[in-house]
Fold this protein.
Amino acid sequence: MECPIVLQARIPGTTPELLQRLGAGRELWESEGLTKQWGLTTALGFGNTGMELGDDMSASLVLPSKVVLLDYAQRAFAAADRAVSKVEDQHFMVRCIDLYDKETTIGQVITGHLGHMSRHLGMIEALCGVQGERGTATI
């Protein structure tokens, strides 16, 4: 649930300059209380991201309507875009701590998130294709 949101929430705290330019980062998921708003009462895996959520648990999730999910996804990606747009070349090699509490660089975090999001879009396109749908999955 949090891929792009984690990115926009964590980038500001990686350097004092980015914190000043972006303000404190906060995940939409938390700031809007979406777990409660959407009636999700179970723990959503590692960091409430859906990672490591069991198959039975994920299959039983009751999600909001497509309109609500698309609105959330668009806002999440827009927040990530805003955060990434503030990162300049000199920030890419700045050391930071990633989602897994491992030391890395801002550049590696950004490229890792972009690759991860692209994989999800590819999976969505594949699922559309096997259902006879045409086009691409974009947000």
Remarks:
- DSSP finds seven helices and two strands in the chain.
